[in-house]
Amino acid sequence: MKKLLNDPSRVVREMLEGLAMLAPDTALLRDANVVVRRALPEPHARHVAIISGGGSGHEPAHAGYVGEGMLAAAVCGEVFTSPSTDAVLAAIRASAGPNGALLVVKNYTGDRLNFGLAAELARAEGIPVEVVVVADDVSLRNTVERGRRRGIAGTVFVHKIAGAAAAAGKSLAEVVAAARSAADAIGTMGVALDGCTLPATQQSSFSLADDEIELGLGIHGEKGVQRTKPMPADQLTDTLLTAIADDLQLAGGERVALLVNGLGATTPMELAVVARAAVNGLRERGLRIERAWCGTLLSALNMPGCSVSVMRVDDARLALLDAPTKVATWPGAGRVNVDGAAGIASGSAHDVATNEVRENHAGERPPLQLAFDAAARALIDEEARLTELDSKAGDGDLGSSMKRAGEAVLAIPPTAWPSASEALAELAVTLRRAIAGSSGPFYATALLRASRRLAGTGEPAAADWADGFDLAVHAISELGGAQPGERTMLDALRPAADAFANAVRRNEPLAQAWAATVDAAEKGAASTASMMPRVGRASYLGERAVGEPDGGAVAVACWLRALTPFVR
C-alpha cells in the first residue's frame, strides 16, 4: 500500500504541523499533539472551552474543528490510539479559564480513562471540567445497553452544538446539558466496503471479498457486527435508517437533522447517492428533515464506506446548529432542498412537443425502430467489454455510456414517425440526452446530418442511405477534428461507409452490400489495436494505449452488425 508519508512514527506530528500552517486561527503546542485556538481571550474572559480528541486517523476530526464556534482545543493521539492524560491536561490548561471546560469524548475505553483522569487533575487545579460521552452507534443496540456503545460520527453534531452554546456565553452546566441531550438524541450506523490501512502497515485491517460488506463497524478499522452481501445504495441506506429509527423510536412528524459521513475513501458521488436515499427514506417515514449535511467529517483513514447519523431537533437545537462558526471544515448551513430533485421544465418548446408526440402515439414499433432496438440491445450486452477496452486507454465510461444509450432507445415508445428523416432526428435527441462525454455529441451530430440528407425523400433508396451515412461520418470527423488512422470510432465508420457506398454503386444486393459494410467496420476496429492514438484521452497514453482495439470503434462494429437482419 503506497502512502505519501515520511517516517510513520512521526506522521501525526507532521500532519498537525501541516494543518496548523494552513489554519491561521490555530496554534500547535510545542510539547504535545494539541491544536488550540490562537485568538483566545485572557483566561478570566474565556467562555467554556470545548475540548475533544482521540486517536488520529479520523480527519478532519478532531483538529479540523478547532475554531470560533466549535472546539477550543483538540487532543490528537497516535493513529487510532487514545491521547495521553498529560496531553489532555495540557489542552485544558491551554484553553480553559474560570468558566471551565467540557470534554467531548467518544465512548472508547482508552479515551474515557485518559480524558476522565485529566478532568480530575484539572479539577484539583481549580479548573471546572465536565465530560460528555458520545455513544451513538446503534449497530450494538441488540448486544449492549446504550451507555456501552461506541461513539462515532454523531460526535461531530455534539461538537457543533456544544461549541455554539459555549460561544453564546452559556454556563458550564448549560453547555453540558445541551451537549448531553444532543448526544442522547443521536443514532448512527456505518457500513464498510473494505478495511483501512494504518500508516506503518502494508495490509488492511481486514479484507472483504467482492461480494461482502461489513455492517455496523466502528471507526478504528475494527470489523462490523454483520458481514453480508453488497446491496444497492437505496437498500443499504434503508437498512441503516431502519436501525437508527427503531433505536431512537422516531415517530412520524418528528423533526430531525441528517449527516451522511464518508469514512475516508468514499467519493462525493457515492455519498450524494446515499444522501439522496437517506432524505427520501426519512421523508417516507414521515419525518421532517430540518437540516442535512454530506461529506467526510469523521473518517477512518482510507476506509471505503459511510455512516448515516440522525438527530432529533427542536428550535433550540436548530439554533445551535445554525449558529455561526469560522471552522472551515464545518460543511455550511445544511439547508435542505427536499423538492429540488423533482426536476423543472427546461423551457424548450421543441422538447415539450417531442414528449407530447411520444405520449399521444401508440401502437406497433415500425421496422426502423425495431432495427434501432436491436442495435440498442447489442450495445447493452457489450457493456463489460466496452468498459474494459475504454479503461485501458481512457476513463472507462464507454460501456456505461453505451448502455445508457441503449436503454434510452428501448424506452422510446411506439411512435408513428412519418419519415426516416424524422426517425433519425428523434434518435439524435434521445442519444444527446442519454450519452455524456464525447460520444453523445458525435452520434447526435451524425444523425442530424443524415436526417437532413434524407428529408423530403419519402422512402429513401439505398443510394440515399449511402449518402446519409457518408455525411454522418464526415460530420463526426468535422466536429472532433480526427481522421481515419488516429485510433477513433472513425476507423470503423469510414471504411464501413465507403464499403456501403461502393457496393451500392455496383448495384450489389442490399444484404450483400451490408455484409461488406459490417466486415469493413470490424476490420477497421481491429486495426486500431496497432495504431498510435492521436486525439482524445488515449493520446495522453501514447504507446501505452497500443495493443487493444479502440472501444469506440468496437462499439460501432457492434451496432452495425446488429442492424444486419433489418437491411434487406
UniProtKB/TrEMBL annotation:
This is Dihydroxyacetone kinase family protein. GO terms for biological process: glycerol catabolic process. It comes from Paraburkholderia azotifigens. PROSITE patterns: DHAK, DHAL. Its EC number is 2.7.1.121. The gene is dhaK. The keyword Transferase applies. GO terms for molecular function: ATP binding; glycerone kinase activity; phosphoenolpyruvate-glycerone phosphotransferase activity. Signal peptide: none annotated. Residues 366-565 form the DhaL domain. SMART domains: Dak2.
